[in-house]
Specification:
Blueprint lengths: L1 H17 L1 H12 L9 H9 L1 E5 L6 E6 L6 E5 L10 H9 L3 E5 L14 H15 L5 E6 L1 H11 L4 E8 L5 H12 L3 H15 L8 H4 L4 E10 L8 H9 L4 E6 L11 H12 L1
Parallel strand pairs: 3-4, 3-5, 5-6, 6-7, 7-8
Antiparallel strand pairs: 1-2, 2-4
Length: about 280
């Protein structure tokens, strides 16, 4: 992996100097590439046990999965970047056993789709399509992990639904900060980076510099938000959840864990208990 980063940095530093606009475009394309990882056995089990259905979408139909009673309160599950719907199966099974209707789906570009490119705007539109397909007639809840928390917040901020509870199993806050970290990782020049951000602004139809989860939460109605985050998370720093809570104190609870990992937290019994307690209270 170290050698690959070295090659990427050499490549982007070179073309950034001579062709910054092209470098920005290529970097943005790379930013949207999903590394398709093997589905683990405990995740694959989820695909066997759930009811499958598809929702029409522009690039490929969305693969959706359902558990629980059709008349129960709905909880939508959204997985993280380079993951899959089965990664949240521990929560799906327990929610269904507690009389919730669980709706999950694979984000575009992930799991078993033909394409392995996607972005926040496309995933936002996919979630909106799933919600509109289900047509909830009363407030519903959402449980999401990592990138899925950004997707759910973005989608709900653009829709006219009342939300009951939100559970974010980690969440980024500043989207610009994610792009900036990527810039540093691949050695992109400031000029090339400005072109990348222009492309991102056009795709999102809004300014990335103003895109913060703590602000997007103010654009829709929800009852309560639970943030669960590892204090030592190496993928999304804990400070992101602190920032989100600080802007939404009255409605937000933050639970800090230690050494439960960014992905391993999805199989942690204490995290599961935190989420179930929050949903049932």
């Amino acid at each position: 992996m170290g050698f690959q980063i070295y090659i990427l940095r050499f490549y982007f530093k070179s073309i950034s100097y001579f062709l910054p606009k092209i470098a920005g475009a290529k970097a943005f394309k790379l930013f949207q590439k999903v590394r398709i990882k093997s589905i683990r056995n405990r995740e694959e089990d989820f695909y066997i046990k759930t009811n499958h259905f598809k929702v029409a979408f522009t690039k490929e139909d969305i693969n959706c999965y359902e558990l629980g009673s059709g008349n129960s309160e709905i909880v939508f599950l959204l997985h993280g970047w380079e993951s899959n719907a089965g990664s949240l199966s521990k929560f799906a099974y327990q929610l269904a056993e507690n009389n919730y209707r669980v709706i999950s789906f694979d984000l575009p570009g992930h799991s078993k789709y033909k394409s392995n490119y996607t972005n926040l705007a496309e995933c936002k539109n996919a979630f909106a399509n799933v919600i509109d397909f289900i047509k909830p007639n009363k407030p519903f809840s959402v449980l999401s992990h990592s990138f899925g928390s950004a997707v759910s917040t973005y989608a709900l901020s653009k829709l006219n639904y009342k939300i009951d509870k939100l559970v974010f199993l980690t969440s980024p806050n500043s989207i610009l900060e994610i792009f900036t970290d990527f810039k540093k990782l691949i050695g992109l020049s400031n000029t090339a980076f400005s072109y990348l951000i222009k492309d991102a602004n056009l795709l999102a139809n809004e300014q990335i510099k103003d895109f913060n989860i703590d602000e997007k939460l103010k654009h829709f109605t929800f009852s309560k938000l639970l943030l669960i985050h590892d204090e030592y998370d190496k993928i999304i720093p804990f400070k992101n959840s602190v920032e989100i809570q600080s802007k939404n104190k009255q409605k937000t609870e933050l639970i800090k864990h230690k050494n439960i990992g960014h992905y391993k937290m999805l199989w942690n019994d204490n995290v599961l208990e935190d989420a179930l307690r929050f949903f049932k209270q």
